[in-house]
Amino acid sequence: MQLSIPSVLSALRALLKFPYWFLRKVIGILFGWTRFPPSQRPPSDSSPTYRQPPPEHSTTSQYSNYQTPSHSDQPSETQDLPPSPDRQQSQHGRTRSKDQDQLNKQNPYYTGLRERANQEGDEVDRCFQQSDEACERGESVRGQELREEGEEHEYARDALNAEASAWIFRENNLNSKPGEVNLHGLYVKEAISYSDKAIKEARQRGDSQIRLIVGKGLHSDGRISRIKPAMEKKMRQCSLLAEVDPRNAGVLIVQLG
Question: What PANTHER family does UniProt report for this protein, alphabetically (predicted)?
Answer without folding.
Answer: SMR DOMAIN-CONTAINING PROTEIN YPL199C
